[in-house]
Amino acid sequence: MASKSDRITTVEENLLKAGEDNECFKEKEPLGSNSFRISTGDSSLRNEQAIQPFQGLKLASHNVLERAQLTGRLKCSKCCGSRMFYCYTCFSLVGVNQEEIPQIKLPVKIDIIKHPNETDGKSTAVHAKLIAPDDVTIYTYPCIPEYEDKRHSVVLVFPGPGSVTVEEISKQLLEVSQKRSSASLEEPCPKRAKHDAELKDAQGVEGQQSACPLQRVVFIDSTWNQTSKIITDERLQALLQVELKTRKTCFWRHQKGSPDTYLATIEAIYYFLKDYHEQCLSQDYQGEYDNLLFFYSYLHQLINKAKHSAGKLN
């Protein structure tokens, strides 16, 4: 995947390189979510298939990634870094055409705040940016947007003693909005007009489907040991915190000693939107956001296969 001189030493890239050297990824049979056919003589792989977390999802074909994988690493046209599939520095595709990658529209805007010491190659946040480019923005801390005047329409997904569930978001944000409306009665007319306009926007297209005023969701992209500096930033203190309490990670680099409810960034975004669709918009979920896991699901299968080939997965 890369020349020895510019090897990117992330776990998944090392495993993928090992797989290439062992020819385990050069078979013509698709490895994507649309075809999980595995030798019936290998019971351990059949067990892995049985617990495959992505079965049943409505994912686009991974054929394009399989072809790109056989081609190997290419240089990013923007930074000239050696990459496969996408450049995690420039948030651009590499060796893959844009029209071959699924694109989805999200019901809310997503802000991802990345810790400056988080290794770019280890982050799954880029997956969201590639699949939903119009709705996802990635910031590097300490660069954080100003949310002070948007507390009635923005939430922060992060566990904590005061966090609420996705189901409680609508009620909590409406209470914030009502308090703000009461306070605005004491303000000069220009400020009241501005607030009324913001409230009307919050109840626009999405508001016609639901009473939920949510417009933007903030996620922190960092190892759990590095989150304290970001989560304690005063610019985030006023935001309603939301916790995804019932979801479990299937990330291949799960941090030792942390509970399995600590999700990778792309998992957190996906599960939040799925719950939001059902519990806040009150709509049946029919796979609208499954393709957020397009890259993640492919890498999951690829890396588990590489681990098994290397004898690191029973």
TrEMBL record:
Its EC number is 2.5.1.25. Residues 83-308 form the DTW domain. GO terms for molecular function: tRNA-uridine aminocarboxypropyltransferase activity. It catalyses: a uridine in tRNA + S-adenosyl-L-methionine = a 3-[(3S)-3-amino-3-carboxypropyl]uridine in tRNA + S-methyl-5'-thioadenosine + H(+). It is found in: Nucleus. One of its GO terms (biological process) is tRNA modification. GO terms for cellular component: nucleus. InterPro entries: DTW, tRNA_Mod/Golgi_Maint. Keywords: Nucleus, S-adenosyl-L-methionine, Transferase, tRNA processing. Catalyzes the formation of 3-(3-amino-3-carboxypropyl)uridine (acp3U) at position 20 in the D-loop of several cytoplasmic tRNAs (acp3U(20)). Belongs to the TDD superfamily. DTWD1 family. This is tRNA-uridine aminocarboxypropyltransferase 1.
